């Protein structure tokens, strides 16, 4: 009888306890803590689960709901002077002399009806990887001249013929295979049109994030992310615009660059940033020996003149290359 009374007394003490943290030896489960953002002050409420709902002999489970006003979404600060830098690059690009301005994927099938143009944009984008705009543009023109900017016509064409037509596009034989398979999928699943979602575009062999975002922006006028190619990746790092997650170190992949840029760059700049930086990279901020001396933003670019604008003849002769 005394034992029963003691258990009842312990149960009463546990239920009436106001400070569960003082209970020795009882550690709440991580699921018991729920964090909710509020605009007011931090509040703590304790909900006790009735003992009858728990058939085991363990102590009464306490569920804690903690509302913490300090738990907010972390906003990534935009880089210093980014607006001035962007405006400066736009002014540099007014000349329109970069290859991307006349022969980029955006120009593919520009005179075709909407549905046919979307297909031309997809094919041009699939060929553009590791290939100069001039080469890709010429390949698109050859396909058009042979009536092959059409998924049905491509499916009926053998891969060898297709490969020869797009040569010397980089990896032209593999790309011919991917293009033919994508054409079949467009016919079978999309009525001869191209996929209109990132998920379906990425499901096509030979289409990566860069291509998918570019196609969505150009073909469907539905920009869901930034198209980051080698130029955008390189220049964003030179400008100090992007960093690896949780660090101040440069990004190492285009996908890391995309995610970093999207955290602070206003969305209305997402679509134009690709052709803007691509053209800048083709003419001024080149991969090797960037032309910092003739660059209009060399006074505010953190990387200006840090890479040799021209090779040192003596170093080149000795095989030392750039520092």
UniProtKB/TrEMBL annotation:
<dbReference type="GO" id="GO:0051539">
    <property type="term" value="F:4 iron, 4 sulfur cluster binding"/>
</dbReference>
<keyword id="KW-0411">Iron-sulfur</keyword>
<dbReference type="GO" id="GO:0003677">
    <property type="term" value="F:DNA binding"/>
</dbReference>
<dbReference type="InterPro" id="IPR000445">
    <property type="entry name" value="HhH_motif"/>
</dbReference>
<keyword id="KW-0227">DNA damage</keyword>
<keyword id="KW-0408">Iron</keyword>
<keyword id="KW-0809">Transit peptide</keyword>
<dbReference type="GO" id="GO:0005634">
    <property type="term" value="C:nucleus"/>
</dbReference>
<comment type="similarity">
    <text>Belongs to the Nth/MutY family.</text>
</comment>
<keyword id="KW-0004">4Fe-4S</keyword>
<dbReference type="InterPro" id="IPR004035">
    <property type="entry name" value="Endouclease-III_FeS-bd_BS"/>
</dbReference>
<protein>
    <recommendedName>
        <fullName>Endonuclease III homolog</fullName>
        <ecNumber>3.2.2.-</ecNumber>
        <ecNumber>4.2.99.18</ecNumber>
    </recommendedName>
</protein>
<keyword id="KW-0378">Hydrolase</keyword>
<dbReference type="GO" id="GO:0140078">
    <property type="term" value="F:class I DNA-(apurinic or apyrimidinic site) endonuclease activity"/>
</dbReference>
<dbReference type="GO" id="GO:0042644">
    <property type="term" value="C:chloroplast nucleoid"/>
</dbReference>
<feature type="domain" description="HhH-GPD">
    <location>
        <begin position="127"/>
        <end position="283"/>
    </location>
</feature>
<keyword id="KW-0326">Glycosidase</keyword>
<dbReference type="GO" id="GO:0046872">
    <property type="term" value="F:metal ion binding"/>
</dbReference>
<dbReference type="GO" id="GO:0006285">
    <property type="term" value="P:base-excision repair, AP site formation"/>
</dbReference>
<dbReference type="InterPro" id="IPR003651">
    <property type="entry name" value="Endonuclease3_FeS-loop_motif"/>
</dbReference>
<dbReference type="GO" id="GO:0003906">
    <property type="term" value="F:DNA-(apurinic or apyrimidinic site) endonuclease activity"/>
</dbReference>
<dbReference type="InterPro" id="IPR030841">
    <property type="entry name" value="NTH1"/>
</dbReference>
<dbReference type="InterPro" id="IPR003265">
    <property type="entry name" value="HhH-GPD_domain"/>
</dbReference>
<keyword id="KW-0479">Metal-binding</keyword>
<keyword id="KW-0234">DNA repair</keyword>
<dbReference type="GO" id="GO:0006289">
    <property type="term" value="P:nucleotide-excision repair"/>
</dbReference>
<dbReference type="Pfam" id="PF00730">
    <property type="entry name" value="HhH-GPD"/>
</dbReference>
<dbReference type="InterPro" id="IPR023170">
    <property type="entry name" value="HhH_base_excis_C"/>
</dbReference>
<comment type="function">
    <text>Bifunctional DNA N-glycosylase with associated apurinic/apyrimidinic (AP) lyase function that catalyzes the first step in base excision repair (BER), the primary repair pathway for the repair of oxidative DNA damage. The DNA N-glycosylase activity releases the damaged DNA base from DNA by cleaving the N-glycosidic bond, leaving an AP site. The AP lyase activity cleaves the phosphodiester bond 3' to the AP site by a beta-elimination. Primarily recognizes and repairs oxidative base damage of pyrimidines.</text>
</comment>
<dbReference type="Pfam" id="PF00633">
    <property type="entry name" value="HHH"/>
</dbReference>
<keyword id="KW-0456">Lyase</keyword>
<dbReference type="GO" id="GO:0000703">
    <property type="term" value="F:oxidized pyrimidine nucleobase lesion DNA N-glycosylase activity"/>
</dbReference>
<dbReference type="InterPro" id="IPR011257">
    <property type="entry name" value="DNA_glycosylase"/>
</dbReference>
């Amino acid at each position: 009888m005394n034992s029963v009374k003691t258990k009842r007394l312990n149960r009463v003490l546990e239920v009436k306890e106001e400070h569960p943290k003082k209970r020795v030896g009882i550690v709440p489960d991580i699921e018991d803590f729920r964090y909710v953002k509020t605009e007011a002050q931090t509040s703590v409420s304790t909900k006790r689960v009735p003992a009858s709902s728990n058939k085991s002999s363990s102590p009464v489970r306490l569920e804690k709901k903690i509302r913490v006003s300090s738990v907010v979404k972390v906003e990534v600060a935009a880089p210093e002077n980014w607006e001035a830098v962007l405006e400066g690059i736009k002014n540099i690009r007014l000349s329109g002399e970069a290859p991307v301005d006349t022969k980029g994927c955006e120009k593919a099938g520009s005179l075709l009806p909407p549905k046919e143009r979307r297909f031309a944009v997809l094919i041009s984008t699939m060929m553009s990887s590791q290939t100069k705009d001039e080469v890709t543009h010429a390949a698109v023109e050859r396909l058009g001249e042979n009536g092959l900017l059409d998924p049905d016509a491509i499916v009926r064409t053998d891969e060898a013929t297709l490969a020869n037509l797009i040569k010397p596009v980089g990896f032209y034989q593999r790309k011919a295979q991917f293009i033919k398979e994508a054409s079949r999928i467009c016919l079978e699943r999309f009525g001869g049109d191209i996929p209109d979602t990132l998920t379906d575009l990425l499901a096509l062999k030979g289409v990566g994030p860069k291509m998918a975002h570019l196609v969505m922006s150009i073909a469907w006028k539905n920009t869901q992310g930034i198209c980051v190619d080698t130029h955008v990746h390189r220049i964003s790092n030179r400008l100090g615009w992007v960093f690896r997650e949780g660090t101040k170190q440069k990004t190492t992949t285009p996908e890391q660059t995309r995610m970093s840029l999207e955290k602070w760059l206003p969305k209305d700049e997402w679509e134009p940033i690709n052709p803007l930086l691509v053209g800048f990279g083709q003419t001024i901020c080149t991969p090797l020996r960037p032309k910092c001396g003739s660059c209009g933003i060399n006074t505010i670019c953190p990387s200006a003149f840090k890479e040799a604008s021209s090779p040192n003849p003596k170093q080149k002769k000795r095989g030392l290359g750039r520092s």
